[in-house]
Design brief:
mainly beta, 4-stranded antiparallel beta sheet, 2 helices, disordered N terminus
C-alpha cells in the first residue's frame, strides 16, 4: 500500500465495511419507546420466485433452509432463490395437495406438511419424496379428515394432527395408525369442537387445543378435556370461542388469540385478562381478529391480526402497530398477517394474505433509528464504535467523520477533517476506534492513517512515509487492539 493508498483499494475497504452492524444495546444505550421505533421491511413475493402470495406457515430446518407454505405450493428458500414443490398428478411420491396449512420438522429431520384437502404428508430428507397419510372412510385408525390445520410434536415425540372439521388425531409412529379425539354432544369432557385451529404444548407438558368452540386442555390421565369458553356475562372469560393461536411466553403467561381479541390466561384461577380494539385508545389492539402469536428471541410478543402487526409493550400492556402503507414500499406488504417466524440468525419473517412474506432484521433497531437523535448524527453509515469512561459513545462513520454521543443528554459532537487545520481529523471515513487503558482515543481511518485524540479536541497523526521504515505500514487502518503490555 502506498503512503496515501489508492482510491480503488480504499473503495474496496469501504464496501467491505458498509455491511457492519453495531449492537449498541450491549453498551447500555437507552432505546426509544416501542411506538416510536420504525420497521423497514424487505418484501419477498411472486416477483422474487415465491409460488403464491398468501403465506400460511414457515419453518427453518436443521440445515438452514426456510420452508414457506402457501396456498399454491411449498417453497424452500436458501436466501437467494426458491425451489417450489407441488403436486404432480402422475407421481404418488409428490406432494398430495398444493394448499399448505402447517409445517413441522421432526427429530429425524423429516418435515411433516398439513394440507387443505390432501391430508398429511411426510417429506423424507434422504429421498426428497413424500409419503401420504389420508383419510379412509372404512378405516377408523386412519387420519380423521384430509383438511389438516395444525401440527405438533410433543416432548414424548408423539405427533398430534388437528383437522379443520374432523377433530384431533395422535399418530402411533410404530403402527402408523391414528387415535382420534372428537366432539361428542353427549360427553361434556370430549373435545369442544371438531374444528381445530391451534395446538400448543406448555412448559409442563400439557396439551392445549384451540377450537372454534373454545380453548381445551387435555387431561392425559382420563383422555378428557377441560374447557375455557366465552361467557357474555363474564368479562374474565375468553373473549371469543373462535381460538386461532396459543402461546406461552417466557414468563409463563398463556396467551390466546381469538377472533374477538387477545386473552392472557391465569392458569391458577382459570380467568383471563382481555385485550381488544378500542377506537378511543391508539395503544389498544389494532383489530380483534387475532390470527397468530409469536414471541421473539428478545422476549417480545408479536400479534398478527387482520389489520396489521402488533407489538405488545409489557410495561403498559399497550401495543405498537405496524400497517400496510401504499406510499411506503418498506411497510408491511398486507394488513392481514397469517404467520410469523424468526430464524436462527434473528431475522423476523411475517407472512401475509396476498402480500407474500416480509423480512426484517431486529438488530437494525438501534440508536440510529430514533428520529430525534438520528438527525444529529453526521452519517447513518457506522463503521466503528467505542465507549469512553464518561458516558460517551464514539461512532466512526463512512463519510461523516467521528461522532461523540453523550448518552445521558443525547448531545452529539462531530469531528471532521478541516483543510485549514492540520491538527483536525485526517479522514472523514473512520474505520476503527479504540480507547486504550489510559483512556486515550485512537482513530483508524480508511486512507488517512492513524489519529490520536488530544484532550483539547485536536489530533496527532501517524501516517505511512516511504522514506521512513519505522512509519506506519499503510494509511488504511482497519482494526486496533491494545495488548496486556499496553502496546
Amino acid at each position: 500500500m502506498t503512503g496515501n493508498g489508492s482510491a480503488t483499494a480504499a473503495a474496496r475497504r469501504l464496501r467491505r465495511l458498509r455491511g457492519a452492524t453495531c449492537l449498541l444495546a450491549a453498551l447500555g444505550l437507552a432505546w426509544p419507546a416501542a411506538a416510536s421505533r420504525p420497521i423497514r421491511f424487505d418484501r419477498i413475493s411472486i416477483d422474487q420466485g415465491l409460488s403464491q402470495a398468501t403465506v400460511t406457515c414457515m419453518l427453518q430446518d436443521r440445515v438452514g433452509f426456510l420452508w414457506i407454505g402457501t396456498q399454491d405450493g411449498l417453497n424452500r428458500y436458501d436466501g437467494a432463490g426458491f425451489v417450489v414443490l407441488k403436486n404432480e398428478p402422475d407421481d404418488p411420491a409428490s406432494l398430495s395437495n398444493n394448499w399448505i396449512r402447517a409445517l413441522l420438522e421432526d427429530a429425524g429431520g423429516d418435515i411433516w406438511i398439513g394440507t387443505r384437502g390432501g391430508g398429511l404428508n411426510l417429506w423424507r430428507r434422504d429421498s426428497g419424496t413424500f409419503e401420504r397419510y389420508l383419510h379412509d372412510p372404512g378405516d377408523p385408525t386412519s387420519l380423521s379428515g384430509n383438511l389438516v390445520r395444525a401440527l405438533l410434536v410433543d416432548r414424548q415425540g408423539r405427533l398430534w394432527v388437528g383437522t379443520e372439521q374432523s377433530g384431533l388425531n395422535r399418530l402411533d409412529p410404530v403402527s402408523g395408525s391414528f387415535e382420534r379425539f372428537v366432539h361428542d354432544p353427549g360427553d361434556p369432557a370430549s373435545l369442544a369442537s371438531n374444528e381445530i385451529r391451534a395446538l400448543y404444548e406448555d412448559r409442563d407438558g400439557r396439551l392445549w387445543v384451540g377450537t372454534l368452540g373454545g380453548l381445551d386442555l387435555l387431561d392425559e390421565a382420563s383422555g378428557g378435556f377441560r374447557h375455557l369458553r366465552h361467557d357474555p356475562s363474564d368479562p374474565a372469560s375468553l373473549n371469543d370461542d373462535r381460538v386461532r393461536s396459543i402461546l406461552e411466553d417466557r414468563e409463563g403467561n398463556l396467551w390466546v388469540g381469538t377472533f374477538g381479541g387477545l386473552a392472557r390466561l391465569d392458569r391458577e384461577s382459570w380467568r383471563v385478562a382481555r385485550f381488544a380494539h378500542d377506537p378511543a385508545d391508539p395503544r389498544s389492539l389494532s383489530e380483534n381478529r387475532v390470527r397468530v402469536l409469536f414471541e421473539d428471541q428478545q422476549d417480545r410478543l408479536w400479534v398478527g391480526t387482520d389489520l396489521g402487526l402488533n407489538l405488545h409493550d409489557a410495561a403498559s400492556d399497550g401495543f405498537a402497530h405496524y400497517r400496510f402503507d401504499p406510499a411506503d414500499a418498506t411497510s408491511l406488504s398486507n394488513d392481514r398477517v397469517t404467520s410469523i417466524f424468526q430464524d436462527r440468525g434473528g431475522v423476523l419473517w411475517v407472512g401475509t394474505q396476498g402480500g407474500g412474506v416480509n423480512k426484517w432484521v431486529p438488530r437494525t433497531w438501534s440508536f440510529y433509528n430514533d428520529p430525534v437523535r438520528l438527525g444529529a448524527l453526521s452519517s447513518r453509515d457506522i463503521l466503528a464504535l467505542s465507549a469512553d469512561a464518561r458516558g460517551g459513545l464514539w461512532l466512526g462513520t463512512a463519510g461523516g467523520g467521528l461522532n461523540r454521543v453523550d448518552r445521558a443528554t443525547g448531545e452529539v459532537r462531530v469531528f471532521r477533517p478541516d483543510p485549514g487545520r492540520p491538527d483536525s481529523l485526517s479522514d472523514e471515513r473512520v474505520t476503527a476506534l479504540l480507547h486504550d487503558s489510559r483512556g486515550v482515543l485512537w482513530v483508524g481511518t480508511l486512507a488517512g492513517g492513524l489519529n490520536r485524540l488530544r484532550p483539547d479536541g485536536t489530533f496527532d497523526h501517524y501516517r505511512h512515509d516511504p522514506a521512513r521504515p519505522g512509519s506506519l505500514g499503510g494509511d488504511g487502518v482497519m482494526s486496533l487492539y491494545e495488548d496486556r503490555g499496553g502496546e
